[in-house]
Amino acid sequence: MTVSVFSPDYAAHHPAVHRIGPADLQIALAKGWADFLDNPTHVLFIVMIYPIAGVIIAAATFENNLVPLLFPLASGFALIGPFAAIGLYEMSRRRERGQETDWVQAYEPLTHRSPRPLLAVGLVLAALFAAWITVALAIYHALFDGSVYGSVGAFLADVVTTPRGWALIAVGNLAGAAFSLLALAVSAVSIPLIVDRDMDAGTAIETSVALMRANPVTMVLWGLMVAALLVVGMATLFVGLAIVLPVLGHATWHLYRRAVGP
């Protein structure tokens, strides 16, 4: 069912958004898995840089005594992931149309079509990521006074056994949830919409926000599902991201196709 969450004038100039529920999320994930199985080698080539980047981030934090930044940096994947998945959206789009889905064509939205709207949304997500890291550092310094830890074990022991550590968990997760909700509202369907229709960034973001407003419970559930799968991927020393990221990228495309109308 199509819904209008803004004025009639807004609805006349923006794509329609539909009511969606948990069943739509399940269907999107199932189709995302099918897309992944259709071209696993091409997809793995596209996303392999992200597990590698995760390992580099982890090594850098250990080498430079920045252990407290490991979690904020790792969780930042959820904020910039929608932009990183451009190639996956294009592959799903081409597979849906019966076109060739080689990895060479995956980044046509950035090379052969108009890249500006995509880059504009990417800059918004990058700004959110930078703001999240800044806030996370501020929370840590306020509670731990810039303490330096030589290992993850020592840091975790302090976090789980001290009042300041409990405060860090509570305040840090609340701040992270706020940034995640904001990123979800901005990017839930905005980038797939640009890939599919070559739309301007402002209209695409407004449509994404409209979808969030029309389906708050379902979209929050989607965000929780994405976060849980990313945690699973990171728990395997980022190797699991080589499967989690492409499945989520393809699934996001199919969620967009179910959630946004003409």
List the helices and strands and how they pair.
Blueprint: E1 2-3, H1 8-13, E2 17-18, H2 22-38, H3 40-47, H4 49-63, H5 70-75, H6 77-84, H7 86-96, H8 108-111, H9 116-144, H10 152-161, H11 163-187, H12 190-197, H13 201-214, H14 216-235, H15 241-259
Antiparallel strand pairs: 1-2
Helix pairs in contact: 2-15, 6-9, 6-11, 7-12, 7-15, 9-11, 10-11, 11-13, 12-13, 13-14, 14-15
Give the beta-strand count: 2
Strand line-up across the major sheet:
1-2
* Overall body shape: globular
Strand content: under 5%
Helix % is over 70%
Describe the structure.
The protein has a two-stranded antiparallel ribbon. It has one domain (18-68, 76-259). The two termini are 13 Å apart. By secondary structure, the protein is mainly α. The protein has 15 helices and two strands.
Write a short abstract of this structure:
Helix content is 76%, strand content 2%. It has 262 residues and is mainly α. It has a two-stranded antiparallel ribbon with strand order 1-2.
